[in-house]
Design brief:
Strand order of the largest sheet: 1-2-3-6-5-4
Number of strands: 6
Shape: globular
Helix content: 10-25%
Radius of gyration: 18 Å
Number of helices: 2
CATH class of the domain at 23-96: Mainly Beta
Strand content: 35-45%
CATH architecture of the domain at 23-96: Beta Barrel
CATH topology of the domain at 23-96: Thrombin, subunit H
Distance between the termini: 81 Å
Order of helices and strands: HEEEEEEH
Length: about 110
């Protein structure tokens, strides 16, 4: 049997990758906006102007990735999430991939009157 202390340490040991991805979370109230600041297969560091409380269970959505997560700690506007099940490698890749840039607008010809 693995103790919760051991599983928490294993979650923190998962490889973390810095990101800045807009996301949402919802607990018992309405959905709130947040940004993921780093992500690993087992959890994430997040920031929100309305941070959830420690111990809250949340539905987290970012891009097309959806997970249930528990808030393990909360300090100021930052908080740590532990996913109920690990992200797949493909899901981590989607969250870490740079956001696609919009094509630059083509220069418009100007007509002198």
């Amino acid at each position: 049997m693995v103790s919760t202390a051991d599983s928490g340490a294993a979650a923190r040991d998962a490889r973390r990758m810095k990101v800045f991805q807009p996301a949402t979370f919802a607990g018992e109230g309405p959905a709130c906006r947040m940004h993921l600041l780093d992500v690993s297969a087992t959890g994430a560091l997040a920031h929100s102007h309305e941070p959830p409380t420690r111990g809250a269970t949340l539905r987290v959505e970012c891009l097309d990735v959806v997970r249930t997560a528990t808030v393990k700690w909360s300090e100021g506007k930052r908080f740590g999430l532990l996913f109920d099940r690990p992200l797949t490698g493909a899901e981590v890749e989607r969250l870490v991939a740079p956001a696609p840039r919009m094509a630059a607008a083509s220069p418009r010809a100007t007509v002198n009157a």
